[in-house]
Amino acid sequence: MMHVQLNKSLHGPEGDFELAVDLQLESGTFLGIHGASGAGKTSLLRMIAGLMPPDSGRLEINGVPWLETSGKAMPPQKRNVGFLFQDYALFPHLTVLGNLEFAANSPSDKDRIPELLRTMELEKLQHSMPGVLSGGQQQRVALARALVRQPRILLLDEPLSALDAPIRRRLQDYLGKIHREYRTTTIMVSHDPSELHRLADRVVELRAGKIVEDRALDQGSGEIPLPKAALKASGRILEIELEGKEVLLRIDTGAQTIRISLPATEAKSLKPGQNITFQASIDTIKILNNP
Ligand SMILES: Nc1ncnc2c1ncn2[C@@H]1O[C@H](COP(=O)(O)OP(=O)(O)OP(=O)(O)O)[C@@H](O)[C@H]1O
Question: What are the ABC transporter domain coordinates in residue numbering (predicted)?
Fold first, then answer.
């Protein structure tokens, strides 16, 4: 169990506002955080990592205090946290491999590096210096580096935002896989609703430093299966995926995310982001309006 209770006065463009967050997370949760720019998402992650001091608060992870109300804090290097921040640069004087080796703390961490290089599709770049890499390649190295120590808690601030769609999708799958395998408690900031629905089992929205929405998604898949009874609902298409002759739609109805599949021929004109009304029962699905 992770208990995060943090307060900090932040200086926004329209004046100071108070970040006040009280969150309890079961171990192994994948929490997604979204919210407008300047809501305090990065600040919250930095305080958990120990990189920004809160004005007051408490942090307790599996019964171990990382930050006490008295202000006594465990230093960042002692917190078993892997993090990836937007501005967290790679060491410019070390190669890709050197950056990962620097993060390794034990022989088993080192043994993990070849697999991470392979998964992040960085094998051919392992002897390159960060300065010659593209933004997306650097982000992949930073993500690999965050995972080298197999942290108990993984803090990811828009980790895939600079990547193009195919690799973004592969790394989403990889993040999902390592989360299922190691049950690392993960907190990820993302502006991409389909990414959050794909990976998170709980999603919170932060607005001006406060949690204004806290939603559980179906564990693992991030989706609620189609109910047995007929259902008529409206929602926004989050994602369209071709699977053989079928098309898989993930639809956010506001209350829940529903996954439906349709014959590909019936879904030709549908696009992500579109609002649709549909009627579905256990064996038939009909799109009622298809603007
Ligand atoms: N150390 C600090 N002390 C006080 N205010 C700060 C500090 N660091 C950042 N801020 C302010 O806190 C506000 C929230 O910033 P933060 O980066 O946490 O937002 P965010 O939700 O992550 O935004 P984005 O989505 O644009 O990354 C900003 O207005 C920022 O200027």
Answer: 1-233
